Amino acid sequence: MIRLVRTLACIVLVAAGSGVGRASAAGLAGAPAPFDKGGIPVALVTLISDGDFFQAYQAGAQRQARALGIDLRVLQGRGDAAAERDAVQQAITLGVKGIIIDHGMPESLRDVAQAAVAAGIKVVSFDVDLANPRIPQIQHDDRALARAVLDQALRDAGDRFVAGYVYVAGFAPLDRRNAVWQEVKRAHPGIREAARWGTATSPVATAVADQSQAVFRAHPDITVVFAPWDEFARGVALAADEAGLDARIRIYSADISTADIQAMRAPNSPWVATAASDASVLGAVSVRADAMLLAGEDPGHDITVPPTLVTRGLLDRLSIDTVEQLEQRLPSFGHSDAARAPWMGTGE
Ligand code: SR1
Question: How far is the CA of 204 from the centre of ligand 1 (A)?
Answer without folding.
Answer: 12
